[in-house]
Structures are given as C-alpha cells and as structure tokens.
Amino acid sequence: MWRSLKKYLKRLQAPENDPGIRSTIENIPTAQFNALLDGMCAEGWRKKNEYDGFDAWIDYGHVELRKGNVTLTFEWTNWFEGSINGPTDLIDALAETNGLKVVGGAQPGEEEDAP
Known about the structure:
The structure is a single chain. This protein is an alpha+beta fold. Helices cover 30% and strands 32% of the residues. It has one domain (21-103): Double Stranded RNA Binding Domain (2-Layer Sandwich), CATH 3.30.160. It is built from three helices and six strands. Helix 1 (2-12) runs antiparallel to helix 3. The N and C termini lie far apart (31 Å).
C-alpha cells in the first residue's frame, strides 16, 4: 500500500504540482482510522494542525497532516467515526488499498462527472 502512495507523493513534491480536486473517505471504523493515521505519520507525514479542545479524541478529533505540498485532513467523531479528505488521486489510492469508499470526486476506476 505505502509504495503506491510514496510514488504518488514524489510526483507532488514539486511546488508547481497542484493536487487538484479533493475527495473524502467517510465512515472509516475507528480502529482502521487510527491505523491509517498512525501509518501516515510513520511514513513521514507531519501534523500541521490538531484540535486540542477538552473533548479532543473523545467526542471529536481533527488533525491535518502535511507532506511536501500535500495536505490530508483526518476527522473523527464518536457518532460517524473517521473521515479523510485530500487530493482525489491519493484518496483513491487509500480507499482502494484499504477497502474503503470515496465520496465526492471519482470512485477508483471511474471518471469524474463533468460539471
């Protein structure tokens, strides 16, 4: 899984490369969400911003990870569990390698609808 993500990220490291359209994976079970967040951090993603309110990671959690010029937003609630928002190509790769479904943007293997 991480190899395909690393290849994608190398392409995005150049400042002229805009990640473009963003998509979201929703309803990620908590254990899988935590594993994905930990895995991205282990792969060199850095926390850019993290919610630290009194209910952080009890009722609600939010963290932005950054690598190069790419930002992923991880959000969790105890009602809807986890979601990840980011560039469509990267979100598609995460969804495909983890058996998750993308909302917004194109599903892996599909073309995005024209506006």
